[in-house]
Design goal:
This protein has nine helices and no strands. By secondary structure, the chain is mostly helical.
Length: about 220
């Protein structure tokens, strides 16, 4: 009896090799995570300029070829790290804002500011590799840093929610200035607590930022 022409042909594609339970794509993703974790540690300890690609590879237990499979330079690695940290911060403050959406802004403000601070200060390395290292690396990094500030300003202006849509450009300009002030307070805090500081230093940063934004809010609402 002849085989049916409609019978499916056997799959002759090679099986994907798994090592320690991971296929090639999963191993590649794991190496990328290892490299970014190593870069976080080294940039925080030795600064961006004081860290080499070879050191990152040694810390991550990844070969140099593996590094260049993911990043074409040390700067590209840093930009990926900056994007990862920034995305984490944005997600955290957005979740808190959504969870407190039924409250007035003055009530939500404390929760949003606290979420922002803990997103960068619970692991002091994150503050170091973002606020402590981002300035002056390259025009591309500066553009990325400015984009992060713009996102933060737009987020703040949205939380303020001007009654008149025509006020939005003014609100955004004020929000940009406010974010700049907040980031400067973080940078100053980091300068004085570059080892992470005492645990209560984080509470001090929360209080300082809340006071600063409250003063801006008072002036903003009084000027309407």
């Amino acid at each position: 009896m002849s085989r049916s022409k409609s019978a499916a042909a056997p799959d002759r594609s090679p099986a994907r090799r798994r090592i320690r339970g991971l296929d090639a794509d999963e191993r590649s993703a794991q190496r990328r995570r290892q490299l970014l974790t190593a870069a976080t540690e080294l940039f925080a300890q030795h600064s961006y300029s004081g860290t080499s690609i070879e050191q990152i590879c040694q810390q991550a237990f990844v070969g140099t070829k593996g590094f260049y499979d993911h990043f074409d330079s040390k700067e590209a690695c840093y930009r990926a790290l900056l994007e990862q940290v920034s995305t984490g911060i944005q997600q955290r403050v957005s979740q808190v804002a959504a969870a407190t959406a039924g409250q007035d802004w003055p009530q939500r403000r404390a929760a949003v500011v606290e979420a922002f601070v803990h997103a960068i200060a619970d692991d002091p390395r994150l503050a170091k590799v973002t606020f402590g290292e981002a300035g002056g690396i390259s025009p591309a990094v500066e553009a990325q840093r400015r984009s992060n500030r713009r996102w933060s300003a737009e987020f703040l202006a949205y939380q303020w929610g001007p009654d008149n849509p025509a006020e939005h450009p003014r609100s955004l300009a004020l929000a940009l200035a406010t974010i700049g002030g907040m980031f400067e307070l973080v940078a100053d805090w980091l300068h004085h607590h570059d080892d992470g500081g005492a645990p209560d230093s984080v509470d001090t940063l929360v209080a300082d930022l809340n006071h600063f934004v409250a003063v801006v809010d008072a002036g903003r609402t009084a000027g309407r």
